Amino acid sequence: MPSPPPVSQIRAAGPQDGPAIFALIQALAEYEQLSHEVTGSLEDLNQGLFGERPYAQAIIAEVENRTVAMAIFFYNFSTFLMKPGLYLEDLFVLPEYRRQGIGQALLTYLGKLALEQGCGRLEWSVLDWNTPALDFYRQLGAELKPEWQLCRVSGAALEAFARS
């Protein structure tokens, strides 16, 4: 059996990558059984990543000129470290390209970027049922923080929250 093709490149995404990133987001949502939560459009994605005021950034991994993985991230701020942090919102590798080092290469890229930008930490969340991802992150040395719980207010609840 021939070995899988290596990652051709990992690079910052540009507006031309919007459709491929959108397709990866849809595949991620399907994997997480959350397709019903994808309510944004390609136009929304392009505005958020490449518009006049981008709110996040993306990197992609390509194999033989095919976009096979992505990571979407943004900067936050740690009040205790008094430094910026890099928050990985989503990382996704197409199933047929997993276990080839692509996810690790994306995380390494982000780790280097975080250090270059003077960040004090790199953080992300993972679903508690996603055992393969949890095991992968532990292998890389990530510390799971079970004492922290994600809080979210969205949709109608956010509208009511803002009025309270």
Give the secondary structure arrangement, pairings included.
Elements: E1 9-12, H1 18-31, H2 42-50, E2 57-63, E3 66-78, E4 83-93, H3 102-116, E5 121-124, H4 131-139, H5 155-163
Parallel strand pairs: 4-5
Antiparallel strand pairs: 1-2, 2-3, 3-4
What would your notes on this structure say?
It is a single chain. The chain is an alpha+beta fold. It has a single domain (9-163), classed as 3-Layer(aba) Sandwich (Aminopeptidase). 34% of the residues lie in helices and 24% in strands. It has five helices and five strands; from the N terminus they run βααβββαβαα. It has helices at 18-31, 42-50, 102-116, 131-139, 155-163, and strands at residues 9-12, 57-63, 66-78, 83-93, 121-124. A five-stranded mixed sheet has the order 1-2-3-4-5, with helices on both faces. The longest helix has 15 residues, at 102-116. It is globular and about 50 Å long. The mean pLDDT is 94.
